[in-house]
Design brief:
This protein is of the alpha/beta class and 291 residues long. The protein contains 10 helices and 9 strands. The chain has 2 domains: 149 residues, Rossmann fold (3-Layer(aba) Sandwich); 126 residues, no CATH class. The longest helix has 23 residues. The protein is globular.
Length: 291
């Protein structure tokens, strides 16, 4: 039985995540009290027709949430394997979402949303460290969250499933919260300062040729590829099912994109499940002209 615990920040998309799990055939339950978790998991494991389960446990449990560590330990004692999915988002995104829905934060019915977020982050910190998956939904549309979750959880044999996600970003908009490894490629010459290249992206062949014309680019890619191939087996041994590699440059349009695409192509040769996402490229293209 695959048993997934969905948790994270209020306003980060847990309800949408649970609907996605239900669409994938998971037996789902929202707002589970932590002290009932082991009993529920045991009941599900004894039911021959239930092989995939997803439950949401979060700060709505109030004082009951304090029993989460004890409940997770009981699952281990019952030999029930579980995975934790933690959904996060920036404070600004969460505040905006609460304003749009006009709902109070579960930890501050009378106070400010920002106070609730701060309290919840402190409460959730230890559980986040135990998560197998962390998804930052700050810039996600519902369909993007759905697509990422299908990649993570639609495969029934989680023991043989390990995915590598390569994402690009611009430092001007912050580092992705769900990144496991972050690499800064701002040491490379910037095509932005070449008049005939600045309006294009790292997807353009001329931009790629310019970036990879430098020796340091190729040396960096070789070393990065070697590191990733070295790390993957050890992450897998520790029970991790996904590795998120974030590659950043100033705007997330030129250098990071070219490097990430090259890394993605190389990883596809030796790994079955490799995905790529360019987080900020569309924003940069709109501000500089769509090329």
């Amino acid at each position: 039985m695959r048993f997934v615990i969905i948790t994270g920040m209020a306003g980060a998309g847990k309800s949408q995540a649970l609907r996605n799990m239900e669409d994938m055939g998971y037996f789902c339950l929202d707002n589970m009290l932590p002290n009932l978790l082991s009993q529920f998991a045991l009941l599900c494991s004894e039911h021959k027709d239930i092989d995939k389960v997803a439950v949401v446990i979060d700060s709505r449990s109030r004082e009951f949430f304090n029993s989460i560590d004890e409940s997770l330990q009981k699952l281990k004692e019952q030999d029930i394997q579980y995975e934790i999915l933690f959904l996060d988002a920036s404070d600004e995104s969460i505040i905006r979402r609460f304003k749009e829905t006009r709902r109070p934060h579960p930890l501050t019915k009378q106070g400010s949303v920002l106070q609730g977020i701060a309290s919840e982050r402190e409460q959730m910190n230890e559980l986040k460290e135990k998560a197998v998956y962390i998804i930052d939904t700050t810039s996600y549309a519902p369909n993007q969250l759905r697509e990422k979750m299908w990649l993570m959880f639609s495969n029934s044999d989680q023991k043989s499933y390990f995915s590598i996600s390569v994402t690009t970003f611009g430092y001007k908009r912050g580092i992705p919260l769900d990144a496991d490894l972050v690499f800064d490629v701002r040491f490379l010459p910037n095509p932005f300062y070449i008049d005939e290249l600045k309006e294009f992206t790292g997807l353009n062949q001329k931009v790629r040729d310019y970036i990879f014309n430098f020796k340091e680019t190729n040396v960096f890619l070789d070393k990065l590829l070697d590191m990733v191939n070295f790390l993957v087996p050890y992450y897998s041994q520790q029970g991790k099912n996904q590795l998120v590699i974030a590659i950043g440059c100033t705007g997330g349009m030129h250098r990071s994109v070219a490097i990430a695409n090259a890394l993605y192509s190389e990883l596809q040769k030796t790994h079955d499940s490799v995905y790529i996402e360019h987080r900020d490229i569309d924003i940069e293209k709109k501000s500089k002209g769509d090329k």
